[in-house]
Amino acid sequence: MKQTALRKLLKDVGEKYFMPGKPLAKLYPLYDAADTFFFTPDARTSGTTHVRDCVDFKRMMIFVVYALIPCLLMGLYNVGFQANRLIEAGAKAPLDWHGSILNSLSHAIPVYDSSSIFGCFVYGFVYWLPVYVVTMVVGLFWEILFAGIYKEEVNEGFFVTGFLFPLICPATVPLWQVALAISFGVVIGKEIFGGTGRNFLNPALVARAFLFFAYAGQISGDKVWTAVDGFSKATPLSCAAGGAEALASAGYTIRDCFVGVIPGAVGETSTVACLIGMVFLLIVGIASWRVMASMFVGGMGLAALLTLCGPDAVAARPALALGPQWHFVMGGFAFGMVFMATDPVTSAATKIGQYVYGLLVGALVIVVRVFNPAYPEGVMLVILFGNCVAPLIDYCVVQANIRRRMKRLETR
Predict the structure, then answer these.
(1) Residues 178, 222: Cα–Cα separation, whole Å
(2) Out of 10, 55, 143, 386, which could bridge 361 as a Cys pair, Cβ 3.0 to 4.6 Å?
């Protein structure tokens, strides 16, 4: 195979300094991470006992990142759009270092103009980029450290986690909290179980759950969702406990929620962006359509059934009357259905188990939203609960198959 000059240089450096017995042998995982990131591995599957195709682990991870790009682009625009609408209405512009950068850019780019698509995008990018950089630097530090401890290669799994986590956080999340959360998610959620492929919880969701429980006052509420100093605005889910009338009085429409021009986590607001990513993942065959379809049926089916409750029940809990169309476009349901619940490591592995897993997650999300108004968004914790029971679901499915086959043998 013909090598490029850069590949040859990197290989020569590795053989001289990073291989066993060389001066920097302990840093071999760092060298291997760089080599794997920039180039396709030299190793190839051979022999007649292997099933081979063109999709390796690296390409699988990069496909997921590609599918997340619509959510990222829409999220960046929405952060700026929400902030600029408030600034135009008289709210204060950002006063921290984000504001300093935006003020500098405003001389060349209309960053404080809600009608400027590019300006809104730049506004959101200024907030999102530091969160992404801190996530990647801190997360990769732990990945490389544990790769050295386990004497294993640094794989590409974290690049998806590092892309997902900044998308499920508010744009205003403090960077020191980002560092703590991703450390908890990588170390406690994955590495202590042996690393990528051995974790039973989604590391990005573990990191987000850490923030929710450790810093509830700063990661939830109304003030964290808009990148404007001191301004608070409730998300659609916060208004959902009051039913459709509360959503309408707050100015929310199904169209706005579907497109994603509402307050919320950076990458979760746009249902249409999630659906674009879903189509891509299904075309390349990465995500499980069984999990997506069953989660949709479980959640929307239960939401439709709850609308049949009597007037007394609806008067006590107006959220019962919200139709499935509202639940699908609010919060992180679509994002969780496409990118979180379908994680092949932490979801159910058997075909029947994937149906059960998806139905369980979808139905429980609606239960939490409707019957626990103190915590209206149930997607994060419900998927983590689903991760915990997924091995049990697979075990029951496998045991049922064994019993069925044993009965078939006994009748012969």
Answers:
(1) 19
(2) 386
